[in-house]
Amino acid sequence: xxxxxxxxxxxxxxxxxxxxxxxxxxxxxxxxxxxxxxxxxxxxxxxxxxxxxxxxxxxxxxxxxxxxxxxxxxxxxxxxxxxxxxxxxxxxxxxxxxxxxxxxxxxxxxxxxxxxxxxxxxxxxxxxxxxxxxxxxxxxxxxxxxxxxxxxxxxxxxxxxxxxxxxxxxxxxxxxxxxxxxxxxxxxxxxxxxxxxxxxxxxxxxxxxxxxxxxxxxxxxxxxxxxxxxxxxxxxxxxxxxxxxxxxxxxxxxxxxxxxxxxxxxxxxxxxxxxxxxxxxxxxxxxxxxxxxxxxxxxxxxxxxxxxxxxxxxxxxxxxxxxxxxxxxxxxxxxxxxxxxxxxxxxxxxxxxxxxxxxxxxxxxxxxxxxxxxxxxxxxxxxxxxxxxxxxxxxxxxxxxx
Length: 402
Fold this sequence. Notes:
By secondary structure, the chain is α+β, with helices and mostly antiparallel strands. 39% of the residues lie in helices and 18% in strands.
């Protein structure tokens, strides 16, 4: 690995580490899904499904259309090989990594279990929830929720039972036992996890070193802040552990063109000569989820506008970054309109540096996406500076944006 790396090489390293630029498998089965999730380390969960729930999207971006039921068996079944934890935010992580997160569970308890905070002031509710799970086995919040316990909040209307379960979940006193209709099911750890996992011990230092090692492998290249964000570790701790990996010969410290902070790269990282791909990325894809890194690496300033009032949105409600080869070339706001049976491009925008004809590269992506969603036509709204060119490439007439 050279001591100095160009910005273009850094992009290729990052994309290759994330699984881009290699031929798609002829078929996507459980083995291919497992290999990809192991490469990524985690799949971020988000409940917004105006187009598709987020955790499905990194897979289709890298492997192409696949049967979502196969991923459901790996993530949503009661004793699936992946369960949920607060690893980045809410994410699917390997079940076997349960001991690795003991330090995070302890930190969550220290933070939220202090005297005077909710958990401390609601011991009866905590005890009630644990007793219900002990008596009945895995349950969703709706199965143990009672009308008299509902507390209407200003935003979410969380009940005390749901709040108790959320705290117990991050403390590790309950675990996820899959989902039913995308509602999380909870269980006591001993009801779901093997004695080997429950009894295994990993020190804080060993756990964090392993997570830094994995984050570097999955990101490919990054600053200490970039690598720390992958598993939401402290930057100072990550920087120290990265230097230890350098001393151990597992990583190298490099200067990257245009970066103010030093970069770190795994010694076995690939630097492809080129990346050839076309994909739409989830707003919560690891390639773009750390917005400063996205802007530094791809000259792409990205903010999701879900929580922005409609009159103040610039690009749209659920815009997906469009990746073509080594560049983020635009953003497309998608909606799966199941009632009409169409995939709606609600807006399409071109980045200033996007090459000419980029819309042609996005046509097969959109058609594959529509088919993967079980939809027919792609309908393009006349909103955004890429919309008309994209509609023409698709052979459709843009419709007036609503």
